[in-house]
Write a structure and sequence with these properties.
The chain is an alpha/beta fold and about 230 residues long. The chain is built from 8 helices and 7 strands.
């Protein structure tokens, strides 16, 4: 089943938020999802310990450089989707996870530091693809964007990526309080209390647009033989 990794060696790029949004939205649609929490901060594991976690989400928290390949194989045999939240460094663990992925999502804020991290990740993806002698589908996901207007920095990053021929998600992850609060309250995004959290419905709409595009990219990769 599809393995989707979130990678960017630049910390704070939005990997954990994006990975959790994908996993929880897929679970809300009835899919079984295993999240491999390879981030040392273990934010997703902490979310999973809160009330309201769907029973069709399994979280693997004890992940090491030596174990991750076996854990990905096991998860892919048991769940409909495997989502990997990788550590924010360039390591053998990250390389191994990328090499086993069907889709690598590179969360990136509109800054030169994030863009450099994305470029490093893309080089790693290409090297792993050469070693595996197969294409590894990947795309940059712009994160923490403004709901009102795209900043000059975001426009510049998108233009640079387009000029370099690097795939970019049409949807971006907009800065929303709900995305922070889900880590505090637990459960699914759509279950957040509207009296306590602002703009939940807009956050859900944004997350669904992103997840819909992920599914379409996986279908396209399957059509070209990149995903079994």
């Amino acid at each position: 089943m599809p393995v989707i990794a979130f990678a960017n060696p630049k910390g704070g790029a939005g990997k954990t938020t994006s990975a959790l949004l994908l996993a929880s939205e897929l679970a809300s649609r009835g899919a079984s999802v295993t999240i491999i929490d390879a981030d040392p901060e273990k934010w997703i594991s902490q979310w999973g310990a809160l009330p309201g976690r769907p029973t069709n989400i399994t979280i693997v928290s004890e992940v090491t450089e030596e174990s991750i390949v076996d854990q990905i194989e096991t998860a892919a045999a048991e769940a409909q989707f495997v989502v990997i939240d990788l550590e924010g460094t360039a390591s053998l663990m990250v390389a191994n996870a990328i090499g086993m992925s069907d889709l690598v999502i590179i969360p990136t804020q509109g800054s030169s530091m994030d863009a450099k991290g994305a470029a490093k990740t893309i080089r790693l993806i290409r090297n792993q693809a050469r070693m595996a002698r197969r294409d590894i589908s990947h795309a940059v996901l712009l994160t923490r964007t403004s709901a009102a207007v795209a900043s000059r920095a975001i426009r510049n990053v998108r233009e640079q990526l387009d000029q370099a021929g690097i795939p970019v998600f049409g949807a971006s992850i907009i800065e929303r309080a709900a995305y922070r609060d889900i880590l505090d309250y637990g459960g699914l995004l759509e279950d957040l209390d509207r009296d306590l959290v602002s703009n939940v419905d807009k956050a859900v709409e944004n997350a669904r647009a992103f997840v819909g595009e992920v599914v379409e990219r996986l279908k396209a990769a399957r059509a070209t033989g990149e995903v079994e």
